[in-house]
Design brief:
heterodimer, A: 407 residues, alpha+beta, Alpha-Beta Plaits, Sulfite Reductase Hemoprotein, domain 1, 5-stranded mixed β-sheet, 16 helices, 14 strands, globular, B: 364 residues, 5-stranded antiparallel β-sheet, 4-stranded mixed β-sheet
Chain lengths: 407, 364
Amino acid sequence: MSKKYDTPKLDQLKTGKWPSFVKELEKAAAKAPRTEDLIGQLEESYNVKMPLWKHGGMAGVKGYGGGVVGRFSNYPEKFPGAKEYHTMRINQVQGFFYTSDILRKLADIGDKYAGGLFNFHGATGDIQVLGFTQAEAEDLFQSVAKLGFDQGGSGSALRTPAACVGPARCEWANYDTLHMCQDITQEFQNELHRPPFNYKFKIKFSGCPNDCVASGARSDLSVVGIWKDNIRIDPDAVREYAKKMDIQKLVVDRCPAKCMSFDGEKLTIDDSSCVKCMHCINTMPKALRPGVEKGAQIRIGAKVPMVQGPRLGFVLIPFYDVEEDKKNNYAFFKDLVQRIWDFWDEYGQNRERVGELIQRVGIGNFLEEIGIDPIPEMVAHPRANPFIKFEEYFSEDEEEEDDEDEE
Amino acid sequence: MPDKASGRVRITDIGPPNYEDFLPDIIKRNYGKWKYHDYIKPGVMFHVSESGEKLYTVRVGSIRLLSSDTVRTIADLADKYCKGHVRFTTRNNIEFLLDSDENIDNLIEDVNETLGFPVGGVKKCIANIVHTQGWLHCHTSASDASGVVKSLMDELYDYFITEQLPAKVRIGFACCLNMCGSVGAADISIVGIHRRPPHVLVDRVNDLCEIPSVVSACPVDAIKPARTEDGKPTVEIDEDRCVFCGNCYSVCPALPIADPLNDGLAIFVGGKISNARMKPTFSKLAIPFIPNNPPRWPEVIDAVKTILDAYKEGAKPLERVGEWIERIGWPKFFRITGFEFTKYHIDDFRLGECTMNYSNHVTL
C-alpha cells in the first residue's frame, strides 16, 4: 500500500523491540482509511511540537451527557479523515475479562464505524473506540449495546468504576471486588451517563492494600480490601522459605510495624500491631495469607493535581464489613456515597473535586455533615497548632449544667 | 425503549455486561478459592486453588493503542491456547490464562511471532508504562505520550523481560497536568508541562467562554475579568502569578496554552501506591524541565536510565525507588544522579512549607 503521507519521524518509531504504536496505526489505516489522516496529523505534530486538535466541540449520543469525547482536527482540509475523530468510552468487563468472540465483534465494529483503533484500556478502565464521526456515533453505540456493552463516563459525572482482578485470580482479595464494582456501576447508571456533579467522581475497588487499581492515589472514593484478624501462617511453608531466603533480613526487619520475630524456625506475628501493609505476605505468598475476618477500608478525596494540587485519599472508614453489606445489596455503601454526593452538591464549587471541598470547608465539618464520627485512624497525628475553632463555650448570663464543675 | 423520533428501539443504561459470562471455567470453579501463587519464569506465574487446581498466567506487554487486526490476533491466540478466554491488566498488559503448563512455551513462541509482543512485566522488572493519549489524540497535551513511551521501552526492554531490579519499578506518563494517566504516585512519573501562561485570544473569550468560570478556574487567582479596547468582556492573566497549569484552557478554548518553544516534560520520582512497608506517597520533582525532542526524546531516556542505574546500584533487595531515596536522603539522590537541585525543587504551592527539613538530619 502506498502511503498517503511521508512520515520520516514516525517511521523511526516503527523500529526497536517494544511493540510499535505506529505499526498499529498503519494496520488500523489499512482497514479504515480515515486513520491515514490521523497518522499524517501526528507526523505534523512531531514536526511542530504541539497538538493539532481543536478544543472540545460537541459530540455524543441522544440521552447521554457523556461517554463520547469529541475530537476535531484544527486542520480538517489538510487532514480530512481527522476532521471528526471522536472517542467512545465503553464500560469494560469487570476484571478486564473477555472472550475471543466479543473481541472479534468489537474489532469489526471498530472497523465499520470508527478508525479501526482501540485502547485496551484507557486510564480509568474503559475500552476506548477511536475515530468515529458524530453521524456514526449512534450506530456505533447501538452496535456495542447489542453486544451487551454500554458507554463509560466522561465530564462531570461518575466515571466508570474499576476493580482489580479480585477473587477471580488472586488469593489476596479480601472482598469480591468484581461483584461490588458491577453492582455499584449498575446502581449509578444515571450518574454515570448524565453528568450531574461539580466535577468528576471516581470510585475504585482494590482487593488488598497492594492496591492494583491505584485507587488510593486517584479515586475520590477508594475501597481497599483488608482483614481484621490474624495473618494465617503455614509453619511448614515458612521453613521451606527459610531454606532459600533470609527471612529475618527480607521480611522481619522490613516490617513497618516491627511486629514480627523469627527464631530460625518459627515466625511469630503480633497481629494487634500489624498495619496490614502486605509486605510479609507479598514476600512469602505460600506461607502467609490475610486473615479470615475480611472486609475493606474506605478512603476519600484522592485526586490528580488539577485544580488545587494532588491529594491522596485519607481514611474515612477503617473497616467496612463488605460481606454483610453485600447481603443488603451494598445499602450502607450506596447510602454513604449518596451522603457524600449530597454534601458535595450543597457546598461544592464548579470543578472542585470532593477532596478539595473537604480541604476548603475543613475535615471536621465534612464528617459532621455526612454523619461520621472523627476517629484517630483518620489522622497521621493530631493538630500541632492551637487555632481551634471552638463551637462550645460558656456565657455569663446562661445557666450551664456543669458550672459547678468549672468552679 | 422505542425512540419517539425514529421509532427505533434503542438500548440505553444497561451498564457493563456481567463479568461472570466472561470468566474461564477454571476461574468459575475456583472463584475466591485461590490459596497462593508462585513464579515459573519472567512473565509467567501460576495460582493454586484450595482444590489443588492450578491456573497459569502468561503476561504479555501490550500497548495502549491497538488496531482491530491486533485485537483479532489476540482473539486467535485466546482460541488456540485458552479456550477463547483472555484478560487485560490495569497497565495495558494482555494475560493469557491456561489450565495446564503444557502449552506455555508454545504460547510464548506464538505470541512473539504473531503479535511480536514480549512476555514479562511480573515481579522485579519495569512494569508496562501506563500513559495518556498525547499529541495523537488530545488537545491539551504538552507532549506526545505513545512516542516517549515507545522510545523508553525500546531502551528498557530487557528490564521488562527479565528481573534485574531490586523491586518493581512502575513508570507512568501523563502528557499534561490533568494527569489522565494518574501517574502522580508512580516510581518514576513523566509529566507534560508548560512554562508560559496561556495566550489570551482577547476578542474571542466572550464568545467562547463563561468568564466567571474562567476566573474561578485559576488555582492562584491570576485571572481577572477585563474589557477589550472596544468594550467587550474578556479576561486578563497576571503572568507573575500564573503557574502554567492549563486549567483555564480546560474551561475556555480562547486561552490556548500549547507553546512548541516552551512545552516539555518534568520527571518526578519515588511515588508509591502499594501500602507495603512505606505508606503510599506521591512522586517528587527530580528534573523540572526537559524540552520535547521527538521522535525519540533522548534526554528523557538518559534521565530515566540515570535514575534506574543509581537505584539498581544503591537499593537494597525489595526496596522501591521511593524507599531507597527515603533511606539515603534527597541530598544523596541529587549527588548520585548529578541532577541539578534548583529553587524549582522547593515547593512554593499550597502547604509547600510543610516539605522543609526542620532538623539537623542531613548527610554531609
